[in-house]
Specification:
Layout (H helix, E strand, L loop, with lengths): L2 H14 L5 H7 L3 E5 L8 E5 L5 E6 L4 H16 L13 H15 L14 H10 L6
Parallel strand pairs: 1-3
Antiparallel strand pairs: 2-3
Helix pairs in contact: 1-4, 3-4, 4-5
Length: 138
Amino acid sequence: MTKENIVLYAKILKNVFETTDAVEIARRLRYNVGFINTGAQYLKANTYKFEDGLKVILINDNYDAVSKNVLCAHELGHAVFNHANKSNYKDTNLANEYEVNLFAVALLFDEDAFNMPISEMSNYTLQSILDANITPPR
């Protein structure tokens, strides 16, 4: 999928569902979203794909609402792009991470808020935008 198509897909989802609430979009796409109360050092968020095709997004419940939305948008990207099952460790496939960061930023933010098209942003820039919107739990 091209960068432009990833951005377009995210924009279509937020227009169809009339929201940037990643949890609501995930649930309306029939993904299971759950919240788990654990330390941030153990889990921020993760996507699991089971052999029967079931996909589950788990989000650490200790984050605030904005942070949970950002984390869910990133994990929703892994789910919709059907990336291989991830472990609790950071995905080392940089191409996958770029795709989901691009998707998450396009889903959550209005492109007009930036001085360049989202599809031209580097992974570093995309990750920085997402990280700036995640507040560590207390």
